[in-house]
Specification:
Elements: H1 9-39, E1 43-47, E2 50-54, H2 58-61, E3 73-76, E4 79-82, H3 85-105, H4 109-122, H5 132-143, E5 155-158
Parallel strand pairs: 2-4
Antiparallel strand pairs: 1-2, 1-5, 3-4
Length: 159
């Protein structure tokens, strides 16, 4: 059997630590943004090892942001910030696919993501829908049992 099975729990734990450490700089940025959202009344949950922050006055201030910064949810490392928790539950598989991307690419995901969007824009395509990282996340969400985006995971804790 391969790592990832019960025969190698120490290896699984080590790989988990490495994935979290590799994504840690992006998670730190996410935690800074989450702190702002929490100050605006958002609430925090930990779902499947990912911090999810949503709600509060953040949702009322959101329309004031320039259109380019509008999002339903955004992921930085192991931190997902969204407009509300029911929406995050609906988008969970998609956003957790981005978490896996941060575990793979680390902080490099940010310039790679922006670069993919820039290339699509230059090609006259939608910089969001045709972004290679979004295509991967949409595919993961579509393949999940809940369908296009849905995947309500287990909530580890509510904070």
């Amino acid at each position: 059997m391969l790592p990832g099975t019960v025969l190698f729990p120490a290896m699984d734990r080590l790989l988990l630590i490495i994935r979290y450490a590799w994504a840690a700089p992006a998670s730190a940025l996410g935690l800074l943004l989450a702190a702002v959202a929490l100050c605006l009344g958002a609430t925090c949950r930990v779902v499947n090892g990912v911090v999810e922050v949503a709600g509060g006055r953040f949702t009322r201030l959101f329309p004031l942001l320039p259109r380019v910064f509008h999002f339903e949810a955004i992921t930085f490392g192991h931190v997902v910030i969204g407009l509300d928790h029911s929406l995050l539950a609906h988008l969970r598989t998609h956003e957790h696919a981005h978490v896996r991307q941060y575990e793979r690419w680390g902080l490099l995901l940010i310039p790679l993501y922006l670069g993919s969007s820039a290339v699509q824009k230059l090609r006259g395509r939608n910089p969001y829908l045709n972004n290679r990282f979004e295509i991967e996340a949409f595919a993961k969400a579509a393949a999940s049992p809940g369908g296009a985006h849905a995947s309500v995971g287990k909530t580890d804790t509510n904070v």
